[in-house]
TrEMBL record, chain A:
GO annotations of cellular component type: plasma membrane
Protein name, as recorded: ABC-2 type transport system permease protein
Annotated Pfam families: ABC2_membrane_3 (PF12698)
Keyword set includes Transmembrane helix: yes
Subcellular location(s) per record: Cell membrane
Membrane topology: Multi-pass membrane protein
GO MF term (any one): ABC-type transporter activity
Residue span, ABC transmembrane type-2 domain: 138-375
InterPro entries attached to this UniProt entry: ABC-2_transporter_component, ABC2_TM, ABC2_TM_bact-type
Organism this protein belongs to: Marinisporobacter balticus
UniProtKB/TrEMBL annotation, chain B:
GO molecular function annotations of the record: ATP binding; ATP hydrolysis activity
Presence of keyword Signal: no
SMART domains per UniProt: AAA
Organism: Marinisporobacter balticus
Keywords assigned by UniProt, alphabetized: ATP-binding, Nucleotide-binding
Annotated protein name in UniProt: ABC-2 type transport system ATP-binding protein
PROSITE patterns registered for this protein in UniProt: ABC_TRANSPORTER_1 (PS00211), ABC_TRANSPORTER_2 (PS50893)
Domain ABC transporter: 6-235
Keyword Glycosyltransferase applies: no
InterPro entries: AAA+_ATPase (IPR003593), ABC_transporter-like_ATP-bd (IPR003439), ABC_transporter-like_CS (IPR017871), P-loop_NTPase (IPR027417)
Pfam families: ABC_tran
Length: 377, 264
């Protein structure tokens, strides 16, 4: 490898990048735009679910139950209806997500010490909302019924402490409030970084093929490795800037604090930039023109959104699809990102992922260099 | 006897079932200007690209300065300057940046580089254009800049694929003056062209049709043998022989037919 020729290519690429203001602007603006767009849009936290209330009891007890729903912040039981038809029509129209029906005699039953029934209806068209609503609805009512029970027992002079029950103390680690942004933001940083960088290099060689400049380069003594590396190096800088932008806005704006070492995060982030630039470079050696390069990039990006575990949990996928996810570098980088940002773990826990990414990156660069054997046929 | 710069023996290139170049035999003496002529799609560019090492031949032998086109194409590249049909310099780089780029790609030592670039600028008449963006140059300038870039490493062989295809008559003549000057310095030139006046100034020409060489020799000799006025007539008579169809020799007649049709 001739160092002078490598530098020459690097310089030339830098000139291309700087003079193509539109592309440069895109490369810088894309991560900012995406992080805001996805950061707000990909949010699976469900709260303030609109509910209709059909209170046929009209007692303190029934109103207390409704206020329990209200204060939980999970529900907004604000629309009162008189009959079941009205409730149905509201759900059909989508004005409410569900309804709480309290039958008359609710208070009486409780006073008698018998169990009282209420009905809880949920629109199941969106399972994410339905699941959260069901769980929080059940929890709220159970808690409330326990309260009533205890009051009863106290009133009757019985001590509930004699009751032997299992007392479960739950503790959620790394994300105690179960905020979904904590999960999605690190994934988002990885996804954005991958998409922007793959696209940067996917076009680099094909563009020269289309312009005819490659034919002239082929007739010079330049080596494939020099050309491939020389074209990649300037983009490492752009990719690094993109990573810092995504990391800054992701953590600062969306309030996701980095638990682990920032230095380690940066080093591995730059490593991933090189890996995905290599993917783009590989695409560039396979594609015959820019349209093909675009298609191949999409063909690569779309599955990686689904299979990497960016939003959809890998554990929920069938085994075959899970294996597919193992072939996507982003899968490993997401483990690294979540490991460092959320869990604060160090390299001891992540070396496997780092190894996989390094091997993939180096392998792709070698394959790209060999594939691009300075011939046009 | 003159030494040979290029020797090919049954050089063939097939794309799937299509044979672009069919058993081509060439012997090009050093220091000569050799013209490859033939209709569009005859295989001229394919032949040239094989000799440059841009594509690999399917079979046959090819030697450039005693170097094998299969195994030593990288060494061949050090000795040739190649201008492809399409203008292929970086349009978003300035004239100087393009020249510098090729000087560095060819690893021209710093000491010589400056002088060499000045020489090329003078030769191509690009004085004062050094800082112009390449895309703003007109066709003739672009062509001379491209020529300058591929002469950067002082190649022994210059391979030009339709170098004057999109160039005005004056620029065409300036371009060929440069080519003559270069041959005086001992450089060998292999050129394809559709301009028969350019072809007539070659030392030797070969006619390609359907990938095969169907005639060759010094232009004057061929014209004499065929008993016609000029190379253009030779070209047309070759195509007629091959296709069995009559080609209208004079543009005047074509014009006459067109106006006749318009009148109907």
């Amino acid at each position: 490898m001739n160092f002078g020729r490598l530098i020459t290519i690097v310089k030339k690429e830098f000139i291309h990048i700087i003079r193509d203001k539109a592309s440069l602007g895109m490369a810088i603006m894309m991560p900012i735009l995406f992080i805001f767009l996805f950061g707000y849009a990909v949010n699976t936290d469900v709260d303030h679910i609109k509910m209709a209330v059909m209170d046929m009891d009209h007692t303190i007890q029934s109103r207390e139950l409704i206020s329990k729903f209200k204060t939980s912040n999970y529900f907004e039981p604000t629309i009162y209806v008189q009959n079941i038809e009205e409730l149905e029509s509201l759900i059909d129209k989508g004005e409410v997500r569900g309804g709480i029906i309290i039958p008359s005699g609710f208070l009486k039953q409780i006073k008698k010490g018998k169990s009282a029934q209420i009905q809880f209806i949920i629109d199941g068209t969106d399972p994410t909302i339905a699941k959260t609503a069901l769980q929080s609805g059940m929890m709220l009512t159970q808690k409330y019924s326990l309260e009533i029970n205890n009051k009863h027992l106290e009133k009757n002079g019985l001590n509930n402490k004699s009751n032997s029950t299992i007392d479960i103390r739950t503790r959620v680690w790394y994300n105690p409030n179960l905020e979904s942004t904590k999960f999605t933001i690190p994934g988002l940083i990885g996804l954005i970084l991958q998409n922007v960088t793959v696209m940067l290099t996917a076009f680099s060689l094909v563009r020269e093929k289309e312009m005819g400049t490659l034919e002239l380069l082929i007739v010079t003594p330049i080596k494939s490795v020099e050309l491939i590396l020389g074209k990649m190096i300037p983009y490492i800088f752009i990719g690094a800037i993109d990573f810092l932008i995504a990391l800054f806005f992701g953590t600062y704006w969306f309030n996701v604090s980095i638990e682990g070492s920032i230095l380690l995060l940066m080093i591995l982030g730059f490593g991933f930039v090189i890996c995905s630039l290599a993917i783009g470079m590989f695409i560039s050696t396979v594609a015959q023109n820019q349209a093909q390069a675009m298609q191949m990039t999409l063909f690569f990006i779309l599955p990686s959104v689904l299979l990497s575990g960016f939003v959809f949990p890998i554990e929920a996928m069938p085994k075959v699809i899970q294996i597919g996810g193992n072939f996507i570098p982003l899968t490993y980088f997401l483990k690294i990102l979540r490991g460092i940002i959320l869990k604060g773990v160090g390299i001891h826990y992540l070396w496997k992922e780092v190894m996989v990414l390094s091997i993939v990156g180096i392998l792709l660069l070698v394959v790209a260099s060999v594939r691009f054997n300075k011939k046009l046929d | 006897m003159n030494e040979l710069a290029i020797i090919t023996k049954n050089l063939t290139k097939r794309f799937d079932r299509f044979t672009a170049v069919d058993k081509m035999n060439l012997q090009i003496p050093k220091g000569s200007i050799y013209g490859l002529l033939g209709p569009n799609g005859a295989g001229k560019s394919t032949a040239i690209r094989m000799l440059c090492g841009v594509i690999t031949p399917t079979e046959g032998k090819g030697d450039v300065f005693g170097l094998d086109v299969y195994k030593e194409s990288e060494k061949i590249k050090e000795n040739i300057g190649y201008m492809s049909q399409k203008f292929s310099l970086y349009e978003d780089l300035t004239v100087m940046e393009n020249l510098n780029f090729y000087a560095n790609i060819y690893s021209i030592p710093k000491k010589i580089k400056k002088e060499r670039i000045v020489d090329i600028i003078n030769m191509a008449g690009l004085e004062g254009k050094e800082k112009s963006m390449t895309k703003t140059l007109s066709g003739g300038w672009k062509q001379r800049l491209a020529l300058g870039c591929c002469l950067m490493h002082k190649p022994k062989l210059l391979i030009l694929d339709e170098p004057t295809a999109a160039v005005d008559p004056v620029s065409r003549r300036i371009f060929w003056q440069i080519i003559y000057k270069l041959t005086k310095e001992g450089i060998t030139v292999l050129v394809t062209t559709h301009y028969m006046d350019e072809a007539e100034s070659c030392d030797e020409v070969a006619f390609l049709f359907g990938g095969k060489i169907i005639g060759r020799g010094a232009p004057k000799e061929i014209i004499r043998k065929k008993n016609v006025k000029n190379l253009e007539d030779v070209f047309i008579s070759y195509v007629e022989e091959q296709t069995g169809e009559k080609v209208e020799a004079s543009f005047n007649k074509i014009k006459f037919i067109q106006s006749d049709e318009a009148g109907e």
